Amino acid sequence: MLSFTSSLNQNSEAFAIFINDKYDYKDKRNVLTDNAVKKINSFLGVLKTKRKDEEISSIDISDKQKCFVIKIEKSSKSYLPQEKGGNFLSFLQKYKNIKNVELYIDSLDYDKDDLVTFFSQFIFGFNLKGYSFNKYRTLNKAKFEKNINLKIITANKERIEKEYKYYNAIKEGVFLARDLVSEPPNVLNPKTYVEKIKQLSKIGLKIKVYNEKEMKKLGMNALLGVGQGSINESYLVAIEWNGKKNSKQKPLAFVGKGVCFDTGGISLKPARFMEEMKYDMAGSAVVVGLLKSLAIRKAKVNAIGVVGLVENMPGGNAQRPGDIVKSYSGKTIEVLNTDAEGRLVLADALSFTEKKYNPKFIVDLATLTGAIIISLGEEYAGLFSNNDELSKNIIKSSEEVNEKIWRLPLHKNYDKLMDSSIADVQNINYAGGAGSITAAQFLQRFILKNTPWAHLDIAGMAFSKKAANLNPGGATGFGVRLLNNLIKKYYE
Length: 492
Hints:
By secondary structure, the protein is an alpha/beta fold. It has 15 helices and 19 strands.
């Protein structure tokens, strides 16, 4: 909820003004007091003389009121306003006693349209950075709450409210993805995950849940094999958004890996950092968050989200290394390592999505390989695709929101590394090397009709131990903004 005012409260503890790269601002409606103007102008004179490069500075208007001065330089980067908003929140959090700030946005010397666009995104970035996940804290909870209330001083209230509705819809999707990834695995198992997804029917999404009995009948043995060692049932969930009713246009499809916890199965992972494997459902969380955003903003597009929800456990009935399963596609898979389970889930989900929905394209997201982190660290997600146009659109969309993507190759020569001697394909590359590429080559075998397809390996991007421009550390929701931008720019 945005809060507005037309004038500055003289008793406010803090307010912010915006200056351009020439250290100029405007105050056409005389919102600022004479004392404030005098002090601000004197301060700007010093900054201009000393050529200070600080993005944000502060001065005391009185011993009870502080003014923050935010410099906005001209830039071609479309994501700049969002990152400025995130940076401002980070700056404010250094001042432990400030909980309310009045934002004098009309002080920026922009025309009305640019002003509305800039500050809708600025507030969006501020709110993204302010995310927290504290629901399980019981002691000193207030200490970890970082909420700072903004009151916006502007003559453009209605236009900013209207524009911000779009960004708020995206924020809701990002926050849902972050919430899902942050939940502990004893809370978010496949069944409780399904219940959370079902709640989205209230905003107009159509939800279809396939249980183990139904998946067995469909022949989804690759997905089912991953979850057979767990006491928790596995599911496949299809989420439909029909924003373009009575249209013959093919839907856009998004598929997510939803391994709610990954022990590695019989091919057990090392104990150290295994707790981080609750994040192995991040691909599915992005898909769910994206569909929520599309529904809230009533996107004029038809879209499908398909998520495979399993738990990979080393139980008495667990899948063994050496097992062979027959996938939904009809292809047989030799399971040489049960910790290469995400690709088994996606294999069935991809073939199912392609056959049932005949989409315009399929984008899948998964925390698929540790190898992608070795390649790209926490700066880029890996992109693999059979279609240059789709890849180009994804890369361009990623640049505009600063969720960075790097395309890596696919080539038929990598296929021989995934050929099994006794089945159609094996689930790992035993020869070594190109771990992320061969995983993508595996997935490509389950795109049966040459549908345009892209695979995003987000293993290095879904969670971060350090804060970034638009997230405070932890679950990032990486991919929601990117894919929303892809849809809006190229397919809506």
